[in-house]
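Incident log, structure service

09:12 report received: a user says their structure output differs between two submissions of the same chain.
09:20 pulled the input from the user's history:
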Amino acid sequence: MAVRKTTAAKKPRAAAQSTPKKTETVVKASTEAAQSVVDAGAETVEAAVKTGTEAAVQNVERAVSTTNAQVKKASKAMFAGYGDFSDMGQQNIDAMVKAGQIMAVGMESVSREWMSFAQASAEANAAAATKMFSAKTMQEAIDLQNAYARESFDKAVAETGKLTEMSVKLASDALAPIQSRVNVAVEKLLKPISV
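09:34 re-ran on a clean worker, output below:
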């Protein structure tokens, strides 16, 4: 009987010693798998942002040059021979083209800012996921999630404010050439009345 007790007592210790190694191996494999998924996702987002930005820039440049050329052709044909009226119309068209160019460049900046925010958010999501996968307790994982949610909300509010501010400035800048032409037109219309 003494032999059985000694053998029985040794088996649970051996099993208890191999369990932490198995757990470490499973946790390590899970963390490596999660990291490879996160890395692949980050690369995909980065490639999509780069491709989207390049395509947007090319499309904006093409649209601006095509619009500019067609507006100039149309304005020359429409206002030929009308003297001051023609000059005024040409200047109005030029103001519209300038406003369009300002808008296109501004929208490109807003798009870049938005893409940058999206990329930063994706990277932050990946980092948060990695931290949560490495949490040792459920409470630690919950605390990490809560901290990440607060941080994400604060960043989203700040970025929204920044994008709103950029959009308002863009609208103001784009309308400036048109407003200038409206002021000139009002002056010309009121000038004969005051004489």
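09:41 both user submissions now match this output. Likely a transient worker issue. Closing.
09:42 reviewer note: The chain has three helices and no strands. The mean pLDDT is 78.
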